[in-house]
Structures are given as structure tokens and as C-alpha cells.
Design brief:
mainly alpha, 0% strand
Length: 108
């Protein structure tokens, strides 16, 4: 009986260590995604500002370039809002396929 209890305790400790490893890997992945997202956001910000200033120069204005770029972002936001349910369903379907071990190449 003592050997069985020792086996169970060892198994529980192994599960704890595996869980800690998985959590550490998840945190590391999240940090990398956050850093990449921040860098991509900065690139988008500066490219947007450059485009707005370019439009300002072309239109010889100090405002219209920013209005045009803001309008483009507004249109993109409206389109994303309208398509939000389809986008969410696609993401959920892909996640469920990954969880079940079925990739899109396998499904085709």
C-alpha cells in the first residue's frame, strides 16, 4: 500500500511539474506575441502618420490628410464591425480544429 501511495504522490508531483512547464511556455509565448504586437502597432502608427503628412503635402493642407486617413480607418472599423460574427466563427472553428488535431490541410 505504501508503494501505491508513493506512486500516486510521484505522479501528482510529475503533473505539477508538467503544468508549471506548460504555464511557463504559455507566458513566454504571450510575451513574445505582446512584443510583436507592440512593434507592429508602432510601425502602423508611423506609417499612418507618414501617409497623413503625405496627403497634407499633396493637398497643401494641414488637416485633410489626417481626415482622409482617419476616414479610411473609420471605414475599416465599420467593415470589421459588420463582419465580426463571421470572423469570430472562423477563429473558433480553427481553434476547435487545432484542439481536435485536424488541420485545414487534413480537412481538404
Amino acid at each position: 500500500m505504501e508503494a501505491f501511495n508513493g506512486f500516486i504522490e510521484t505522479k501528482v508531483e510529475l503533473w505539477k511539474l508538467e503544468a508549471k512547464e506548460e504555464i511557463s511556455a504559455l507566458i513566454a509565448k504571450m510575451l513574445v506575441v505582446m512584443l510583436l504586437s507592440l512593434c507592429a502597432l508602432m510601425v502602423l502608427l508611423f506609417l499612418t502618420l507618414a501617409l497623413a503628412f503625405l496627403f497634407n503635402d499633396l493637398l497643401e493642407s494641414t488637416v485633410w490628410g489626417f481626415v482622409i486617413v482617419g476616414g479610411l480607418y473609420g471605414i475599416a472599423t465599420i467593415i470589421l464591425y459588420i463582419k465580426r460574427n463571421a470572423i469570430i466563427e472562423t477563429i473558433v472553428r480553427q481553434q476547435n480544429n487545432e484542439i481536435e488535431g485536424v488541420s485545414e490541410e487534413d480537412a481538404l
